[in-house]
């Protein structure tokens, strides 16, 4: 037994301190997402960027997830420098958004945002990696810490929704930059983790996962289902504003989805389904969600449909984690997570760029393409069941 786990009583105050600081960082990270995800496209529109360019610009973070991100996270992990990497990237991100706020030309915005995305998108995977290492060391529960991120997403989205009814939409970029700076400052409070006792050798063997059809099915199913949210992420706020909804209503609609997500995360330990069944069901629900959204439902029905985010996003994530723990050896879980992020980035960036073209021509009819993507994910994971372990027997392979 490792020395730091031999006496839980002596580790309890340190574990609580670790959890509190990590919760603050999760709050800042996802608080930034709660503002930037729904309102960065609104800012782009406010400064005169047309929808075609909006689709291209907002696709950049997803693009970096399968290009730059794996190299950045791998570099930090190999050098046992997750904490230091998080701090550096967070400060660079805040500087990037400050620079973007000075720009108005779409091509310049695209160029600077691309650089900013290269340092921004690795932060969440690195925080997750830091958290999992800390969970293993201190024995804390991941869920209650992670929930602060979702809660902060709601607060950020609602606060920005209230604000945007009183100030011009072009001011939003400065709020995003300010929250990015808060993220950087909170990251300074992260504790340094002990260096691994042995070199990280698993990464050199992780590529074998890419020759396993079951693993490929897991990551591309996740990519298809999560990528099916592309039109929603890029154009939902714009579509709802065009329909006459105010900023607070738009934020409330986003928040309904995140509340549903929080509930799913909170009650997920009670689920009795296999991870494969969870993912297949969540994919089917995602297909239904986008098919209904494409029909521009009235506000009361739209609010109900938003609750399905807990399943289309939250349950998918819960099920994918379950499949990972049962089908991926423990010593390459971090690298496997990198492959998952890369696959999702590849699909999401393609879907987001396509979303701009589809939305420009068909408006909310673009959601039908998203429905087809999610359905494809459902079919893929069901067909892959013969290659997958869905019990706890393989958790410690």
Descriptive account of the structure:
This protein has 397 residues and is mostly helical. The chain has 2 domains: 14-200, MFS general substrate transporter like domains (Growth Hormone, Chain: A, Up-down Bundle), CATH 1.20.1250.20; 208-397, MFS general substrate transporter like domains (Growth Hormone, Chain: A, Up-down Bundle). 74% of the residues lie in helices and 0% in strands. Helix 2 packs antiparallel against helix 16 and helix 13 packs antiparallel against helix 15. The relative contact order is 0.15.
Secondary-structure topology with pairs:
Blueprint: H1 8-46, H2 51-58, H3 60-65, H4 69-78, H5 82-100, H6 106-120, H7 123-138, H8 142-164, H9 172-187, H10 213-227, H11 230-242, H12 247-267, H13 275-293, H14 299-306, H15 309-327, H16 333-362, H17 367-383
Helix pairs in contact: 1-7, 1-8, 1-9, 1-11, 2-16, 4-16, 5-6, 5-7, 5-9, 8-12, 10-15, 10-16, 10-17, 11-16, 12-15, 13-15, 13-17
